[in-house]
Specification:
The protein is an alpha+beta fold. The chain folds into two domains: 72 residues, no CATH class; 69 residues, Domain of unknown function DUF1254 (Immunoglobulin-like). The protein has one helix and seven strands, in the order αβββββββ. The strands form three sheets. A three-stranded mixed β-sheet has the order 3-6-7, with no helix packed on it. β4 and β5 form a beta hairpin. The protein is elongated. The protein starts with 25 loop residues before the first helix and ends with a strand. The mean pLDDT is 85.
Length: 164
């Protein structure tokens, strides 16, 4: 390869020039800033909105805290969830730990089936994985879920729970 001289480089900015006679304006910049902030707000809120949707749907079918919903078939487009696929059988349950601790019993894996899942907060940040790659290592067990900073005595605690 030979040398490249500055005179041989394109004089226009990459991507071309703005249309002739156009001028950048404060209004354009203000619009772009507002648009970008609105877009970032949508992205930021998506996990919480999805959990809210599950909560609303659970109540819509008569469920309440600790109601387990098992979908009768894999997800289709009308499920209205953000990241579902069409091969995974979904189970969801919601609980409000501000009302007190909850015991979650995880079934042990068998030669025919195993449960892979996550316990997440309202921002869908993972608290624990369950199943063969999770805290129970596929052996099943009882998980004691407590609110942050919970110090009260647990009434009728399960035998040997994992506390989360």
């Amino acid at each position: 390869m030979g040398q490249v001289h500055a005179q041989s480089l394109p004089k226009d900015p990459i991507g071309g020039k703005p249309p002739a006679g156009s001028k950048a304006s404060v209004a354009d910049l203000d619009y772009q800033v507002k648009y970008q902030r609105a877009f970032e707000t949508v992205l930021w809120s998506m996990p919480a909105v999805a959990i809210y949707s599950f909560t609303h749907a659970t109540k819509g079918v008569g469920g309440a805290d600790n109601t387990i919903l098992a979908y009768s078939k894999p997800a289709e487009a009308n499920l209205e969830t953000l990241t579902a696929n069409n091969v995974t059988p979904y189970i969801t349950a919601l609980t409000d730990l501000s009302k007190g601790p909850v015991v979650l019993e995880i079934p042990a894996e068998t030669d025919k089936a195993s449960l892979y899942g996550q316990i997440v907060d309202h921002w869908q940040l993972s608290i624990a994985d369950v199943g063969p790659s999770g805290v129970d290592e596929g052996k099943g067990g009882k998980l004691l879920l407590t609110p942050p900073g919970y110090e009260k005595e647990i009434c009728n605690p399960p035998k040997n729970p994992q506390r989360l």
